Amino acid sequence: MKDRRAREREGRNAETHVARWLKLRGWRVLSERFKVPEGEVDIIAQRKNIVAFIEVKQREKLPQNEDILSQTNIARVMDAAEIWVNQNFETLGPEFEIRFDLALIEGRVHPLSKVRYIENAFSGF
Question: What was the pLDDT predicted at 51?
Fold first, then answer.
């Protein structure tokens, strides 16, 4: 069993990998590891009028379904997203859409790791 630091390091590597993956697909990363007492969002990215709040999960073996997120995890992402939107509302402009996405990486993170990206993985406000 891995210690907490090793798991955190792998999680950060996965987030960095997904941020690069998003940039290569035309997304602008607005924030990484946005944390407030109410919750956190791994990556906040924008492409055109879509602002995506992205939860990144890396596991040695992923489940076949997308039930990798608990209701508590989803609630914490949505709470943090609401705070971020309130803090950045004026800079986003009037015509933006919010989406909650999930990025999954199976196995150890390396430069060629595949990202399984699920748009609208869960819904929020």
Answer: 96
